[in-house]
Design goal:
This protein is of the alpha+beta class. It folds into two domains: 2-180, no CATH class; 183-529 and 537-708, YVTN repeat-like/Quinoprotein amine dehydrogenase (Methylamine Dehydrogenase, Chain H), CATH 2.130.10.10. The protein is 18% helix and 32% strand. The chain contains 13 helices and 39 strands. The strands form ten sheets. The chain has a five-stranded antiparallel beta sheet, with no helix packed on it. A five-stranded antiparallel beta sheet has the order 5-38-37-36-35, with no helix packed on it. Strand 29 and strand 30 form a beta hairpin. The longest helix is centred in the N-terminal third of the chain and has 20 residues, at 161-180. The chain is globular and about 80 Å long.
């Protein structure tokens, strides 16, 4: 009982945040009961199908009764010194309700049956620590069970105790959150950030009449579509509370689809239209119905604030964070999906952009889903993966070509949760990137960040037979790096070749607390220089500078050869290739190119060029700091006009083209001087020339992430 007394004392201390807010005491009592009962459900569920917290607590099932000991039923009398029966008997007394709180228990017909006034706790309470929540995990269940038994004994017949307490508890948790956490704008919208701001949803198609140049006659009919963040309530938010600050990261914000439809009549005349629409995920609909921000940011910020957000989001909504679905769009077996890797994809109607349903491979996929699934050369199957903060950390799957079944699913037995964004495929293998950008709840509980790039950590690349398991992977140790995007992977003789955009640090999630976020981001976008060349050089300078890189993994000798393919003049990311060569040896690739000056000015990435990569043609460049000659590939640049920046670029293959690079790059381009957004079509065989067509859109399109072109889907033609 000594431990019991200790926990009770600590819980009283934890309630000190109610100082001056006595009407909230009852909400706090329930809140800590819920947190203690469910913290294991969040981090260490018994299985992958644990029901929501309300089903664990408010059911008549006793299957889990042994896991919640009754030894702490004394907590009930400690926090509720008045017997509930006496409260019922005295509910109609004239005694002043100094807490200003009433409970009305409703009969099935909706009439009030009883009004209970709850005089609860009067003690003034002191300091708080989030760790206390973890110390009482298995001890507080008795409170809820004792309370339910008491209520069933004293309440009028016909009252659904479970529903009543569930609804009251949710209301109290909401009141608690609203009184303790204050939502604030994360970053002022200065002019240089204007096109990161959200836009209004149009929903309907708007025909476009302003086209400069000509859409090529052999350009395919289809839909160019891109996803991106569009915060529902005007901007990204932070919360401030006595627990500290937690913030949404720059990659968050509800997903919005932006689609441009290309149709051609029998005379070869083009009709072009544009529409946009929110991805209506479960959490989007929840917050839209509430008409206010509700989910507490749970990724970046002070550890106690993030832990509180994690727990309170789960208790209130059954989810620890929003399903933003803002990163990529892909097609499989004639259906279309939008995705972000913290949840499964959402299927949508390509004609209307209406969100239809979650896609979980007929119930077989029960975890997060990569933003970059890869189609297997030849078979049409789809290789997917899901990373999670809890075990299993990394699961790989293969979905059938018809999209109806999950034909393979395997835990790769990772020892850490790596924030891997993309997977690679070759004709025979799956390629897995494991680099030291990790998610760690234990680190968070100990006061560190949830997501962290450890520059001293190990990095490796795994090559796995298509339907292998964790033990079948051949791992290759490589230099520490952060690679979010893979250009391509292929087999060549006894080697597996992997090409991607590699940086020395991670832009996600942001700096450690205490650092100036704007300064940290601005330094990260600086070009790579030596300390001798720049006296103001910092370890954070050029941290995000991404170069095209190649790893050659010898499957027989297990040797690794790795090198940069591009120089330090320009940082590149968001790569793309001709999709017909995915998993096969290819000669060409394309990337968006960072404008370092513009990105340093605003502290977020802006892309002022596009690059064409010639993997089979080399250029030799001399690096004086290395005093030798490093072989680089040939690169051509398509430079946008001043203060114009692109996003969502995609390669479109020319139908009947005989060359891999025969086609176009299509991209959203925004002019920050005129605040006008366009779509540019660029001939990849004349890459350094101007666009063949510029299509002016009816409204601004914010900067976003990945785009794709879908040729003439049956639903629209």
């Amino acid at each position: 009982m000594a431990d019991t007394a200790k926990y009770l004392t600590e819980l009283k201390s934890l309630l000190s945040i109610l100082q001056g807010r006595r009407t909230m005491v009852f909400a706090y009592g329930f809140m800590f009961a819920f947190i203690a009962c469910n913290i294991f459900l969040i981090f260490n569920p018994n299985d992958g199908s644990s029901p929501p917290w309300v089903n664990r607590i408010f059911t008549n099932s006793t299957s889990n009764s042994t896991s919640y000991k009754s030894q702490f039923s004394s907590i009930y009398s400690y926090f509720f010194p008045n017997n509930l029966t006496s409260i019922v008997e005295n509910s109609n007394s004239s005694k002043e309700n100094k807490f200003g709180m009433e409970w009305e228990f409703m009969a099935p017909n909706g009439t009030a049956r009883e009004t209970l006034r709850l005089d609860l706790i009067e003690d003034r309470l002191r300091n708080t620590r989030m760790q206390i929540l973890l110390s009482s995990i298995q001890d507080i269940g008795g409170l809820m069970r004792r309370l339910l038994r008491e209520l069933r004994q004293v309440l009028p017949m016909g009252i659904n105790v479970s529903t009543m307490i569930k609804n009251a508890s949710l209301m109290m948790l909401d009141t608690f959150v609203d009184s303790i956490f204050r939502f604030v704008v994360d970053q002022p919208m200065v002019p240089s950030l204007s096109n990161f701001a959200p836009v209004e949803e149009i929903g309907r198609a708007v025909q476009i009449s302003s086209i400069e140049g000509d859409i090529p006659i052999d350009f395919p009919e289809g839909i160019y579509i891109r996803n991106g963040p569009n915060p529902l309530f005007g901007s990204l938010k932070s919360t401030v509370s006595i627990l500290g600050r937690s913030s949404e990261t720059w990659i968050e914000g509800e997903g919005m689809l932006h689609a441009v439809y290309f149709r051609k009549d029998n005379q070869g005349k083009w009709t072009v239209s544009y529409k946009n629409r929110y991805v209506e995920s479960e959490t989007y609909k929840l917050e839209k119905e509430r008409k206010r921000p509700s989910f507490l940011p749970a990724i970046e910020g002070d550890s106690p604030a993030i832990l509180a957000a994690y727990l309170l989001n789960h208790l209130r909504f059954g989810k620890v964070n929003k399903y933003i679905s803002n990163t990529n769009v892909f097609e499989h077996s004639g259906k279309f999906y939008t995705v972000s890797e913290n949840h499964i994809p959402q299927e949508f109607d390509i004609a209307t952009l209406k969100t239809l349903d979650n896609w979980d491979a007929d119930g077989a996929w029960d975890r997060p889903f990569t933003s970059h699934p890869k189609r297997i050369p030849g078979s049409g199957e789809l290789v997917i993966m899901g990373v999670d903060v809890k075990k299993p950390f990394f699961v790989l799957g293969v979905i059938s070509a018809d999209g109806k079944r999950l034909s393979h699913k395997v835990d790769l037995k990772f020892k850490r949760s790596t924030l891997c964004h993309e997977i690679g495929v070759t004709e025979q293998y799956n390629v897995i990137m494991d680099f030291p950008l990790t998610m760690d709840v234990i680190r968070l509980v100990q006061g560190g960040p949830l997501i962290k790039y450890d520059k001293e950590g190990y990095a490796r690349i795994g090559v796995m037979p298509r339907y292998g398991d964790g033990d079948s992977i051949k791992w290759f140790e490589v230099e520490p790096h952060c690679t979010f995007h893979i250009l391509n992977c292929f087999e060549e003789a006894n080697e597996v070749v992997v090409r991607g955009c590699r940086a020395l640090g991670s832009i996600i999630p942001g700096p450690d607390m205490g650092h100036n976020k704007f300064e940290w981001f601005s330094r990260g976008f600086k070009p790579i220089v030596t300390s001798q060349e720049n006296l103001d050089h910092s370890a954070e300078d050029g941290l995000f500078f991404s170069r095209v890189y190649e790893w050659r993994l010898n499957m027989e000798s297990r040797d690794v050869k790795e090198k940069n393919l591009t120089d330090t003049n320009f940082s590149m990311d968001f790569p793309m290739i001709n999709d017909n060569f995915n998993g096969l040896r290819n000669e060409y690739g394309y990337t968006q190119v960072i404008d370092s000056d513009a990105s340093c000015t605003c502290g977020l990435p802006k892309y002022g060029k596009l690059a064409k990569l010639y993997f089979e043609e080399n250029e030799n460049r001399f690096y004086k700091e290395e005093r030798d000659c490093e072989e680089q590939i040939k690169v051509e640049y398509h430079t946008l006009e001043e203060n114009q920046f692109c996003s969502g670029a995609s390669f479109i293959s020319r139908h009947g083209g005989c060359k891999e690079d025969d086609g176009w790059i299509i991209s959203f381009v925004h002019n920050e001087d005129t605040n006008i957004s366009q779509v540019h079509i660029i001939d990849t065989r004349k890459f350094e020339c101007g666009p063949v067509a510029k299509i002016t859109l009816p409204q601004r399109v914010p900067y976003g992430f990945h785009g794709t072109f879908i040729s003439k889907p049956a639903q629209c033609w």
